[in-house]
Amino acid sequence: MAQHEVEITISKTGEVKVHVKGVKGKGCLEYAEWLSKIVGKVKDRKLTSEYYEPEVKSRINLHQQLNNEQ
Amino acid sequence: MSTVIILTPIIIGGWPSIMAAVVGAASALGLVVKETVKEEIKQQQAVEESVEIELANSEVLAQNLASGKEVVLTKGDIEIRVGRDERGRCKVCAKGKGHTKAELKQIAEEFSRKMTQCFVYNRVATELKSKGFQMVNEEVMEDQTIRINVRRWVD
């Protein structure tokens, strides 16, 4: 199981900053889309290094493939 | 690190959710709900200045509140009225004897900002709970920013 963490900051003007942590690959965009539907319009979006990391399932498959080849 | 997004809030909701935000903002700013819903007062007294602002990104769904009715809040000699205009947008009007238009505008804007923050908080907290997130930490910073940390376990 993976732990997904979200840090939400609501400024005094109501602007919302969402920091999704622990979600690899495109999964974080699903969170971003879900939260934008709840709150409003996306003003800015930054993808961090974790976005470009493979998702957990892919890594397991790769690991299994490597073991099978040995 | 994964992703960081900045969202501009849009207030769309039925009157109960708007009212919850109004009550939250009123409580935070020391205002008292004088009347829950009343007929809009069309005639203003000449001695009282009043300022009306409209929340641009807002839409109050017509549930139990027809246009022209509003909630009245008071704090000392300041009166704030929150209602739904003919176009369905949320409007905030501040008035009070002995206050300039600039002061009243500032009061109305402060209230609408707090109301927006309360609305967004209520909405986000409800949705996070429904998605099975657990609250890890919640704090109000010195600058009145609310910070929420949640997590959940997924397969």
Secondary structure layout plus pairing:
The complex is a heterodimer of chains A (70) and B (155).
Chain A: E1 2-10, E2 16-21, H1 27-39, E3 40-47, H2 56-69
Antiparallel strand pairs in A: 1-2
Chain B: E1 3-9, E2 11-14, H1 15-28, E3 32-39, E4 49-54, E5 58-61, E6 69-75, E7 78-84, E8 90-96, H2 101-130, E9 134-140, E10 146-154
Parallel strand pairs in B: 2-5
Antiparallel strand pairs in B: 3-6, 4-8, 6-7, 7-8, 9-10
Helix pairs in contact in B: 1-2
Molecular structure report:
The complex is a heterodimer of chains A (70) and B (155). Chain A is of the alpha+beta class. Chain A has one domain (5-69). Chain A has helices at residues 27-39, 56-69; strands at 2-10, 16-21, 40-47. Chain A has a two-stranded antiparallel sheet. The longest helix of chain A has 14 residues, at 56-69. Chain A is globular. Chain B is of the alpha+beta class. Chain B has 2 helices and 10 strands, in the order E-E-H-E-E-E-E-E-E-H-E-E. Chain B has helices spanning 15-28, 101-130; strands spanning 3-9, 11-14, 32-39, 49-54, 58-61, 69-75, 78-84, 90-96, 134-140, 146-154. In chain B, the strands form 3 sheets. In chain B, strands 3-6-7-8-4 form a 5-stranded antiparallel sheet, covered by helices on one side. In chain B, strands 2-5 form a two-stranded parallel sheet. In chain B, strands 9-10 form a two-stranded antiparallel sheet. In chain B, helix 1 (15-28) crosses helix 2.
Question: In brief, what are we looking at here?
Answer:
The complex is a heterodimer of chains A (70) and B (155). Chain A is α+β, with helices and mostly antiparallel strands and 70 residues long.
Classification by helices and strands of chain B: alpha+beta
Give the biggest sheet of chain B.
5 strands, antiparallel
**Strands of chain A, total number:** 3
Oligomer: heterodimer
Uncertain ranges of chain B:
none
Total helices of chain A: the number is: 2
Gross morphology of chain B: elongated
